[in-house]
Structure formats: C-alpha cells, structure tokens
Amino acid sequence: RVNDPNGDVDDVEKIMSLPLNDYSREWDTDQDEKMGYDDEVSRYRAWVVQPNIQHFDEMEGFLHPEYPLYPSDQSYTSTILALSRSREPAGAKRAHQLLNRMLKLYDSGEWFKNRPSLLAFNSVITAYANSQEVGSADRAESVLNHLEKLYFDADKPQYNYLKPDVITYNAAVAAWSKSREEAAVYRAEDIVRRMEAHHGSFGDNFLDVKPDLYTYNSLIFSWLRSNLGVESAEKAEAILKQLIEKYNNGEEEYLPSQKTFCSVINAWGKCGSERVSVKKAVDLLRLMEGMNEEGVKSLKPDVITYTSVIDAIARSRMPEGSEMSLNMLHKMERMYAAGDDSMKPNVKSYSCVLQSLIHSNIPDRHIKAREILEGMEEIGVEPNAFTYNYVINCCTRIQGDDQTKMEGFKVALNAFTSLRKSSHETDCFTYAFFLKACALLPETSTKSQIVRNTFYECRKEGKVNNEVIKRLIGCSQNNQDFLRELLLSTRRIDNIRFITVHDLPSEW
Question: What is the pLDDT of residues 362-383, one digit of tens each?
C-alpha cells in the first residue's frame, strides 16, 4: 500500500479490480502449484496483495497475449491519483515516472485497449502543485506543456483524444500560485493568458478552457503571495474588478467571495504608510456594502471585513486614522447590539483600533484606550498581550500638564497590572512600553521604586533587550547613579548611553 499520511489510499483499492481471480483469499505455494501459476504470476500477485511502486518495473513482462494479467491504465491511474493526494515528499516524482511509463507502453502498441488518461496527467500536475520541493511548479508546467504537445501533434493522431481541460490548466496555475520561487506570479499569469488565448481561438488551436472563478482566485492568491508591495495589491484588485465586471455582465459564476475581497483589502493594508492604501481598502468595503444592498447577500461585510480595513488604517499611521477606525468600531458595536452576531468585534478589531490611536493626534487618547478596554469587557471579549501593550503605548504619547500625565500613567499601570494577572504572557515590548510610560511621572522616590521594580521583574523573566534598555535610560536619564545601580552593578562603562544587551548578563 502506498504510504499515504492523509489516508487517501482508497483509490489504490481500485487496482484490486484488475481481471484477476479471487486474490482476496489467502495464498500458499501449494495452491499456486495446483493452479499452474509460475513465478512471474506469483510476483504480480504479491504486488496486488501488497502494492508497491517498485513492482511496476516488473509488470511490463506481462505484456504478452498469453497472459490475462497486465498492468492496466486503471492500475496506473489509481496509483498516480493516490500519490497525488498523499503529499509525501517523493510522491510527485514517483507519479510522474508512472505517467511516463504509461506513455511508453501506449507508444509500444502492445498495451491492448489501454491508454493514458487525462486524469493521470491532471493528477501528476496536482501532485507537483502540492509538493514543497523547489522546482515543482516548473515540473507541473512541463507536464502541461507535454500534454499540449501530444494533443496538437499532427504526427501522433493516437493522442487526439487526450484533450487538456480547465482542470489541467488550473492545476498548473495553482502550482505557481503556491510557489515561493522568483517570478512565480508571472508564470501563473502566463498560463492564464494561454487559457484565454486557446478559448478565444478558432479551428485546431481552440480548447474549451475558459478560465473560471478558481483560475482567477488562484491568480489573485499568487499576486498576494508575491510580496511586491503596491504592485501586488494593484494586480490583485484589478483581477477582482475583472470578476465583478463579468458578474455584472450576467456571468454570475464569476461572483467573487467575501474572502477574496478581504484578501485584497489585507494586501492594501500590508502596503504600510501609503495613504492610497487606506483609500483603496475603504473603497473595497464600500463596494461590498453597495453590492450587498443591491441583493448580493454573500457579500455582506462582517467583522473580518471591517477588521481588515481597520488594520489597514492602523498600519498607515495616519494621524486622522484613529477617528476613522473608532467610527468603524462603533458601527460594528451598534450592529452587534442590534442583533447582528456577525458584526461582534473580536480582540483583533479592538487591538487594531488601539494601534491606530498610538499615532493619532487625539489629546485624550489614554481615555479612549481605557474606554476600549471597558467596551471589550462589556461584550465579553478578552484582551490579549497585544491589546494591553497597545494601551500602554497609547499612554506614553500623552502631552499636557502633570495631572493629565498622571491620568495617563494610571491607565498604563492598570493595563500593565491586568496583563500580568491574566493568562497571557508579558514580552519585551510590555516592559519597554511601561518603562516609557514611567517617564510621565515626576522625579520622586516613588518613580524610582516603580522603575526599579519593573526592571527587576523584566530581568527576572529574561526579557531585557536593547529597546528595554533605551526606555530605561530615557525615563531615568537625570539619575545616572540610579542607572548604574540597575545596569552596571558588576561592570563599568564610560558612557552609559552606549550600553547594549551584550554588556549585560546573558540571563537577563
């Protein structure tokens, strides 16, 4: 039996349906002698009872009119299909070897009525698409090219039945869309253009391989994985708009899914600080809302959609972004309160809004951050480490009088304490942000004690890094002796500003 960790070896059982007598019963040597089976037949029986790919090497010996047993196209195709589903490391190459052997047997003219099937070709391409090995996508396309060559070759009329279909091309597109190789997206795009060209041709070059929704979704996915920044987002959106245009022209099978919209929105969000990225993300959300209002129920934006847009806003670091994200959050909360469970904000929704607050120009951002934590508690959403870290960092940006700064520090302290009491772990950012918040305090012994205790806890947990050191120095720069006490109890460095983690004990 083929080693198949996914359990997809059921198709290999089809091999048992070869024209054999009852091989499910027990066999022994005496029975073999009574029935007149020679050694070759015994070897073939062993292959059937316990399938093993290496025995295909011996099966060509059965291509003789006297033998009722022979390696049929069914046995080859079933094993290739199982290998394509197994995802084992060498599965694709083994399947390809079997396909080449099928072609060799067929070309010999001694394979009776058997012939290679389109399913065998499609399965080999799919096997390469599922393979993690470098060069698999190129091999998948080479199988497609070989199939095209056989079909269009006028000198090989015996292959005019072997017509590539949409599944064939989609498997090759999927292979490149999953590939991390350089220029993979352009190779995927080339195959889609070939599909369009074949479908738009006349005469001998025509193939009924019109790209379908799966084709274009694979191409979108390929662009999203290409990591080419704005170009990736632009290309993905262009394909999405192409699908919408087809749908609006009456081709309803091209209706993109909500997931596809969210994927493109995320692509724009990853473009970073580009203001155009936020506009593109918001425009796609508005497009979804408009199509939904026109009756396309499957495109109703939900919490994932809105959170994707809020994330794009947060990544942009626009000062006015916090107002946009807060408005979206409040809209989600109102819709959830009205009974729409699909709009219940999740921890990422709130965390992204907090992230946008960090870069806002709202003077009372610490109050907004506290209100967000309170809102999470009201609807039963548990903050995580990112949430608390963002709240603390919001408070570090406060400007104003001593009273305002003290209010901000209290919010940061409450978040810091809540995180340490929760089931979530602190990290180096937690301590760096809180030490930065300590700079809001006036220079008193109380501040020194809070800073000392915080840094000692950070040391104890082994989470000191250069950012923590920077924030420690920043909040205590007027007290050099205090810093030396904390950082240099056993060593001495002339300029304390140049201390790094390499100057400190490794266990810190």
Answer: 888 999 999 999 999 999 999 9
Closest by CA position to 415, among listed 373, 365, 464: 373
- Amino acid 104 reads K
Tens digit of each residue's pLDDT (9 = 90 or more) over 285-295: 999 999 999 99
Q: Distance between CA 85 and CA 72 in Å, rounded?
A: 21
CB neighbours of 482 closer than 8 A, spacing ≥ 6?
448, 451, 452, 476
Give me the DSSP letters along 22-34.
Answer: -TTS---HHHHHH
Cα–Cα distance measured from residue 58 to residue 484, given in angstroms and rounded to the nearest whole number? 79
Q: Provide the 10 A C-beta neighbour count for residue 238.
A: 12
Structure tokens at 160: 């005019």
Query: What's the pTM?
Result: 0.78
Measured between alpha carbons, how far is 60 from 502 in angstroms, rounded to an integer? 67
Joined tokens for residue 83: 């290998």
Neighbours of 269 (CB within 10 A): 23
* Distance separating alpha carbons of residues 455 and 486, to the nearest angstrom: 8
Determine the Cα–Cα distance for residues 306 and 135; give it in Å rounded to an integer.
38
142 three-state secondary structure? helix
Q: Is the separation of the CB atoms in 192 and 215 below 8 Å? A: yes
Closest CA to 354 of 393, 305, 405, 307: 393
The number of C-alpha atoms within 13 Å of 456 and in the hemisphere containing its C-beta is 8
The secondary structure of residue 426, as a DSSP letter, is P
State the Cα–Cα distance between residues 394 and 397, nearest whole angstrom.
6
**Hey, what amino acid is at 81?**
L
Q: Which alpha helices (DSSP H) does 338-444 contain, by range?
A: 347-358, 365-379, 385-396, 402-421, 428-438
